[in-house]
Amino acid sequence: MTEAEYYILPWYKKLICKASGALKKTGRGLVRFFQGIPGAVLSLFRKLGNGFKNYGMTFVKGGLLTKLSYVIMGAGNLFRGQIVKGLIFLLAQAAYIWFMITNGASCIAGLKNLGTVQRGWYFDEELGIDVMRENDDNSMLILLYGIFALFITAAFIILYVTNISSAAEAEKLSKSGAKLPKFKDDVAALLDGKFHKTLLAFPIAGVLIFTIVPLVYMILLAFTNYDKDHQVPANLFTWVGLDNFKTMLGANSTLSQTFWPVLGWTLIWAVFATFLNYVFGIILALLINKKGIRFKSFYRTLFVLAIAVPQFVSLLVMKNMLAEAGPVNVLLTELGLISSPLPFFTDPTWARVTVILVNLWIGIPYTMLITSGILMNIPDDLYEAARIDGASPFIMFTKITMPYVLFVTTPYLITQFIGNINNFNVIYFLTGGNPATLDYYQAGKTDLLVTWLYKLTVNSRDYCYASTIGILVFVICSVISLITFRNSQSYNNEEAFQ
Amino acid sequence: MKEKSKSYYGQQKAVNGFIQVLLLVLGIIWILPLCWVILTSFREEPGSYTSYFWPKGFTVNNYVNLITQDQQFKFTKWFFNTLLVSVISCLGSTLIVLAVSFALSRLRFKMRKPLMNVALILGMFPGFMSMIAVYYILKGMNFLSNPLVCLTLVYIAGAGLQYYIAKGFFDTLPKALDEAAYLDGATKSQVFFKITLPLSKPIIVYTILTSFMAPWVDYIFPSIICGSEYDSYTVALGMFKMLEREFIGAYYTQFAAGAVLVSIPIAALFISMQKYYVEGVTGGAVKG
Known about the structure:
Oligomer: heterodimer
Low-confidence stretches of chain A: none
Mean pLDDT of chain B: 83
Number of domains of chain A: 3
Strand content of chain B: under 5%
Number of helices of chain A: 20
Helix content of chain B: over 70%
Structural class of chain A: mainly alpha
Shape of chain A: globular
Number of strands of chain B: 0
Number of domains of chain B: 2
Number of strands of chain A: 2
Largest interface: A-B, 103 and 93 residues
Order of helices and strands of chain A: HHHHHEEHHHHHHHHHHHHHHH
Shape of chain B: flat
Strand order of the largest sheet of chain A: 1-2
CATH architecture of the largest domain in chain B: Orthogonal Bundle
Number of helices of chain B: 14
CATH topology of the largest domain in chain B: MetI-like fold
Structural class of chain B: mainly alpha
CATH superfamily of the largest domain in chain B: MetI-like
Order of helices and strands of chain B: HHHHHHHHHHHHHH
CATH superfamily of the largest domain in chain A: MetI-like
């Protein structure tokens, strides 16, 4: 279809045309993403293969000391005069072996079935009474320690590989007759050539311990049956494979009958919360920045004040204002507009609309704040030209303002969408997921997937289902953002302005 | 012709007048809840719901009681708890954020892109999915007897993933500066401390303020970590407690007083740094 043909179409056909275009684009993005997977996997294996090849070649080609480093870490450095470095490697090896003998090996072995000895009473023949069994297994701790042991092993493997390459490097240097770097030089390098290691060591350690390990633990829980019937320490839990996902996505359980409606509401919420905030925020910014409007900065501060107040304060206040006996209902009753209080948070549909509206109260000032600057950057002559051509303000808004702002704020919009899927505060403080319903398992009518996840962990302790939901949310978010982020300029072209 | 232009301006005036009224109405809607909190905090009669907007009597006792009494709610203690956590975690987080964003923005090394991708992926898991596990890890390390230490530790450790805005800022500094320094024989650490940091005052201020504010507004994580350790509650946690069914009637006005006390510094900080916030969010995008 040519451009001219497109322009003579009636508006609804234009809409269909646009929508199908967007769908096609998304589809293409998805296809590209999945086409990329085999390539990535292949290159990973190639890298691994190369690594092993190097590993073998270094052994074959290397001298005696390098060969010795394969068994005794640090040998290559130690006997060539790099005492401190060699000792560090040696100590690390000794510590690792000691750890594996005392704890590590049994920790990793425990991962296989997460404990076998259940707590309980057994009959002690000597004493003639029932006694509590000691040394029972705690599946949760076994899993946690197992993961830690695995991470320590991974760290050790990295150190081991470093040791080999360092030995090979030392051999190469001493063969060519150059002086080997002393420990002092290595430290100096950490402030220069290897400065990134110094800067990143501590942050990475922090993220590893407090983000990655817990996350791996929770992900693994999704493949166990750690629900409310298998609570530690009284019971054991064990691996169940993909059962939780089958229950969650299948058709016949209360869980899946909760999951699908909650997912639906989460998506509806995310779409409304994101796009209504966005459009109304831009309109508000336009109104405030319009020529001839007075007290611009006063209004700006007024609206920003609403978001500057901590959310737990403003949302809890909103909740009280809209409660059944709250000021809003009382006021409306006294004015004679209503005879019974409006069910802001008690009727499912009302509650859903209310949270979206209250979220507008929080979200509009954010968009206003962010888009104000962008709006002022739009060249005035664009509007001038449009006005001369007789364009109405609405046309100017849809044809000039929106495309311009969209162009600049697409990454922000995506982050907002993902943020709304994971928007915990608004729902938790405002409705707590209520009104409750018996159709759902542990969820109310306004619960999003994340608040449901929270309830499953804190209230009913169905950790395995909570983890399953977490993984599914992750899949949804990553598919959405991979398609959009990877095509955006700021990801692909970060050096453009350096 | 003259008449026409007059009517155009007349129309403009009418439109502007209409917008002015609209903005006023919207402004009132937006500010009303905040006014209500302030009025409630000075209200003499207790109770959570009143059938009127304007209080019948005014008093400062809500503030006085909130600060002085500590049998049921230890607001002063919570306030200083939160202050302590936020000051320490703000120092730690700022150092970490600056280090990470400098490394990822100005240095080139093999693991750079993979690390950024990992951070991107980690950011897509629901934040508190791992909180329960963090709780057990801290329990295993025997830290839980002191929840404030735990909170500080976890806030600092999490800072490594919040580098986007600072990195966006570093990305815009001209590379020629660094190159000139390297030519003169500067090491990378010298470039970081003597060139990049002095140029990054705005983003340092921004990072300090955001990491200072985080503990004040966070509710979920403290609620998991602190449990029933009443003495180590943070302000957000303690104030949420005030709204529980058995307390809300007696303490609602004190809750409002506490809300005002906490909101004033936080709101002041937010308003003072909104410029950096906007630059941070759009900065990465404007380049696109």
